[in-house]
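Thread: sanity check for a docking pose with pyridoxal-5'-phosphate

Original post by kr_44:
Hi all, I'm comparing my docking run against an independent structure prediction. Below are the sequence and the ligand SMILES. Could someone generate the full complex and paste the structure tokens? I mainly care about where the ligand ends up relative to the chain.
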Amino acid sequence: MRHQYNLETRCIHGEDRESADHAFGSIPVPIYQAATFSHPGIGESTGYNYTRESNPTRAELERVVASLEGAVDAVACSSGMAAIGLCLELFGAGAHFVCSQDLYGGSVRMFQTIGQERKRTFTYVSTADADLVEKAITEQTKALYIETPSNPTMQITDLEQMSRLAKKYNLFLIVDNTFLSPYFQNPIEYGADLVIHSGTKFLGGHNDTLAGFLCAGNEELAKKIRYLYKTTGACLSPFDSFLVLRGIKTLSVRMEAQQKNALSIAKWLKNHKKIRNVFYVGLKEHPGYEINRKQARGFGSMISFETDTEETARKVLENVKLISYAESLGGVESLITYPMLQTHGDVPKEVRERLGITETFLRLSVGIEHIDDLIADLNQALR
Ligand SMILES: *Cc1c(COP(=O)(O)O)cnc(C)c1O
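Reply from moderator J.T.:
Ran it for you. Here is the predicted complex with pyridoxal-5'-phosphate included:
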């Protein structure tokens, strides 16, 4: 897809400047806090009828996100999980999915409960290994479901390889692109059919709004998704649409600043005597470094690491002052989580431990505070 403007400009204006013109010359899009819109005449419409289906504030947000992802269309949902639920609605009973083995815990919960009750089945493999993915494909397989980098062990999956497999076996390629955001990675360019975002994270960027997106790579999927979207109703409110749109205006500067901080922290952690392993895609020794460099413009700002003992891990969580011990990620505030108890609490213990998500495993989302303050905080918490 050819764009008139560069990514940084499209974060602010979308694909073209004219579509962002508003009544009275208002620079930001007004918040159209309306559930319903009157019709000019019988059988006529202003383009908007009822907000479950569409709303001018949300439509602007959707245009911007579709532009950033190079998608035909994007629908804005009330949360990332609502977007994932909507995506699953595209598939009927009997559909089988091959998934990355360390998906976001909420996705695993949805697949293993609601998904299975609706007769869909899921196989989890290391999608970093294309042979394992190919072996897991069956007659019933309808889609590959990927996170790269994965959550929380930061494994990288080769999107071109996945796209080749998807074409060979006539599958949909679905990518949850939350961790790098469209600023650093555009899976549709590499053959993805569907891209999912938790807009709560980098897109919103301020830890203040829940949102989700389902982006379609072609017109046929876009049409089906629009129909499911207005029918199931998990749409983003006009005010929250405004907040996420406002967040996206600074996506480029936030992503760059967060990544810069994350690289410094990853290098610092690597040399700390109480730290065993650091998982950060931006470190050259990361096994997925080269593949990520081929398919993404950056490494992001998510770091996982292992401490020497469980006691150290617990101390870090209890002693951080500037960094908050909280779920979520991607915002301007740095947050640290205990995946074993929080994001991956619902993943079966033996699966969790096989992935290395143990009592010494922590995940840090690096914000835009001054690097010296962040390192000083980690340093005192690790003492
Ligand atoms: C947070 C998250 C989700 C779920 O999004 P919500 O907005 O919390 O519903 C899905 N995938 C990934 C990778 C996430 O980090």
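The first strand starts at residue 73 and ends at 77. Hope that helps with the comparison, let us know if your pose agrees.
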